[in-house]
Amino acid sequence: MEYTQLGRSGLSVSRLCLGTMNFGPETSEADSHTIMDRAHEHGINFFDTADVYGWQRGEGITENIIGRWFAQGGERREKTVLATKLYGDMGDWPNEKRLSALHIRRAADASLRRLQTDYIDLFQMHHVDRDTPWDEIWEAFSVLRQQGKVIYFGSSNFAGWHIAQAQEAARSRHFLGLVSEQSIYNLVNRFVELEVLPAARHYGVGVIPWSPLGGGLLGGVLRKQREGGAVRGNAGRSLEALEKHRDAVEAYEKLSADLGEDPANVGLAWLLHQEGVTAPIIGPRTADQLDGSLRSTEIVLDAEVLAKLDELFPAPGPNGAKPAPEAYAW
């Protein structure tokens, strides 16, 4: 496994991040523990979760599963760079969500209890809170750091100008600020290239892509359909996306086959070739899926292949692979 620094911090993380959103709803606790053990065997030290995962309000199901895995010992906690998130609705009362200083304090303490640890390596805002002043947020976060409960802070689903707001407010307080931004990013959805990626690069914020395979669209969906396997692209928005991009997906799967690679690993490898990307978040439901994803870290895509992928899945804006405003202006 290769490692890199998370943004401008000195923290070393694996080039793949283990996403745990399936733990509980899709994957049993026993299988979740097996996947986390297997991740450590492969050298993956970066795990991502959130207080809302498990999708039963206020229960923190996924965090509890991880906490019971940590409790088994064997240096599981010490070997893990643990990232969790707050913002989502965790109860019926008004201050059980978002980013008030009160909820930040309560959410951190609740996550620590569920995760059975005394510190969080990376505490991430799951969404921007347009109603809470940055001074309030950074003051609450600075208290958590002073208490030793959190080491680093990150964001998720921020626009580029939100990153700038956050960093400038942190700078005025002589605070490190954000070290990471977790955004949706894949070959099909490249909107972060307009402003989020440039802002993150400027401020030394590492980008952690979620949904790196576009909800399964880039995971060999057409091949799986032909083979009669269960695929995520058979219903709802996934089916609509497949119909919209069918020609590109078909050509993408053929290109992957010509390379002798699984389409899912090509999609992950493409992200690993993008400047500023720290680690795509993989969300395996089984240990075998985790094992298969390791190949993505070994794939080298040459300039010709990267150009072909740009043709199949163009960058946003009429002017090609450029940041804003050149992407749509001059």
Automatic annotation (TrEMBL):
SUPFAM superfamilies: NAD(P)-linked oxidoreductase (SSF51430). Pfam families: Aldo_ket_red. Gene3D superfamilies: NADP-dependent oxidoreductase domain. Residues 15-312 form the NADP-dependent oxidoreductase domain. This is Aldo/keto reductase. It comes from Saccharothrix hoggarensis.
